[in-house]
Write a structure and sequence with these properties.
alpha/beta; seven-stranded mixed β-sheet; ten-stranded mixed β-sheet; 474 residues
Length: 474
């Protein structure tokens, strides 16, 4: 196919001005809710503390595929924490991460997305195996290369690539034909390291398969430069902040040494931050509070946390007033641990952004459920107060029944799971205070019968149960 014509050169960096992390916005110190019907199709919510308006109610996408966006609506497909290569040597679960990621690419194309935005941890290992790297490149080549035109204009892409290289997007390279651009930041699993400070993402970037942004050369003086992208009248500024050790980044924020470079006409852009850090406090300074983020941001996509809390929530941002931002936490696309957070139904999402004449930016956010993720049932069980007999045989019989019930529940809730994903993950967290503790691995052997792992009843027969007991305090 003929090469795609070159886009006009990006505007100079001088077009950006510095906006410190705690902006002063007196006109945003009060909230005003105005609900009006803009047309027979769109419900517009106008909130002063959140400048971008939502032009259609949030919700879940059913079996239908949304109509293609018009020339002035930018559609962004969103996912985080894909962990490609996780458990790749496991005979049952080795392909789970790739199956889920291929569904993301499929849906992004099927939904006529203008580009795919990934929130970090594309790979599970900092140095992915050759098998994982080849499989990943095969998926990008199959789903992201082609003749489908890209309608997104790169206004300023200084944030793409390494600091000593020319910045440009892969679909402007005349030597490759990109049909689905991918923009991605690194996470804590695939962060830059070693000699040259390279990430595995740099390999994909050099192969023109992705656009890698959000890297920081100095972590004690951080400047977050946005990608400025336009489609018709729709304009988005995407700020990427790849993973930095939480304690170090917390300190840098606290010292007010994190600066967001905002366009001089910043109100005319829909501002999105993609971040990959702890959101919940594990320790005093081992996370990044939302209150560190500027309240002029319209939307935040939070990676690293695996629990799917994808429905956008308004959370308090920086400043002394009522400034707030909308935060979405898509969660991981594959289960990397057998915890309650990973058992929450997994979703991806798409967002439509448009800017009507003489109006503030508007957006529509829709979550999309995964259909190619292995079923996972998690349950907390307390043996006291049940009909479980206080003997090893009694505990085995009781838990065997509970495991079978969980298997039946997985089949009921995921009737259309592909054959390769039919064997569910099961995890019971058992409070066996006052009861004997059985050998968990030997217990799981009964669910691993057959000539091969494909015949097993579950995908994790030797990790089905974990025990704990209450401590008596005197």
């Amino acid at each position: 196919p003929p090469p795609r014509p070159q886009s006009p050169p990006p505007s100079p960096s001088a077009a950006l001005r510095t906006a410190f992390i705690v902006p002063t916005c007196p006109d945003l110190l009060f909230a005003e809710l105005l609900v009006c019907v803009a047309s027979r199709c769109f419900l517009v919510l106008s909130v002063r503390v959140i400048k971008a308006r939502e032009f259609m109610a949030q919700g879940n996408v059913g079996a239908g595929v949304p109509a293609a966006p018009d020339a002035n609506t930018l559609r962004i497909f969103i996912a985080t924490d894909n962990h490609l290569g996780f458990n790749e040597k496991d005979h049952i679960r080795g392909q789970d991460s790739f199956i889920a990621f291929e569904e993301i690419l499929d849906k992004a194309k099927k939904y006529n997305s203008d580009f795919l935005l990934l929130g970090g941890d594309l790979f599970h290992d900092n140095k992915p195996s050759r098998k994982t790297m080849i499989k990943t490149m095969e998926l990008f080549r199959e789903h992201c290369f082609g003749d489908r035109p890209v309608h997104v204009e790169p206004v300023n892409v200084d944030a793409v690539g390494r600091g000593n290289e020319a910045s440009f997007v892969n679909y402007d390279d005349p030597n490759v034909n990109i049909s689905l651009p991918v923009f991605i930041i690194h996470g804590n699993h695939d962060d830059p390291s070693g000699e040259g400070n390279f990430s595995a993402l740099d390999i994909l970037s050099q192969a023109r398969m992705i656009n890698y942004f959000g890297r920081q050369e100095k972590i004690d003086e951080i400047k977050v430069t946005p990608l400025l992208l336009a489609k018709g009248s729709a304009r988005v500024a995407i700020y990427g902040l790849g993973n930095i050790r939480d304690e170090r980044l917390y300190q840098t924020f606290a010292e007010k040494k994190v600066k967001f470079m905002r366009p001089s006409d910043g109100e005319a852009w829909f501002s999105i931050l993609v971040i990959h850090q702890n959101k919940e406090a594990r320790m005093q300074k081992n996370y990044i509070p939302v209150t560190f983020l500027p309240d002029w941001l319209d939307f935040v996509i939070w990676g690293h946390e695996h629990e799917c809390l994808i429905d956008p929530r308004k959370e308090k941002a920086a400043g002394d007033g009522d400034g707030a931002v909308m935060v979405s936490q898509p969660g991981s696309s594959v289960q990397t641990s057998l915890t309650a957070a990973e058992a929450v139904r997994k979703h991806m999402a798409y967002m439509d952004v448009r800017i009507p004449p003489n109006a503030d930016p508007q957006y529509r956010f829709k979550k999309v459920p995964f259909s190619r993720v292995r079923p996972f049932v998690y349950d907390d069980i307390t043996l006291q107060g049940t009909d479980c007999l206080p003997s090893e045989e009694g505990v085995k019989e009781f838990l065997s029944q509970k495991i079978q019930e969980a298997i039946d529940l997985a089949k009921e809730e995921f009737p259309d799971a592909p054959a390769v994903l039919r064997q569910p993950l099961i995890r019971l967290k058992v409070d066996n205070t006052g009861y004997p503790q059985i050998h968990a691995r030997r217990f799981g052997q009964q669910f691993a019968c057959g000539d091969s792992p494909k015949d097993w009843s579950v995908a994790n027969p030797f990790e089905l149960i974990t025990f704990w007991r209450r401590v008596k305090r005197t």
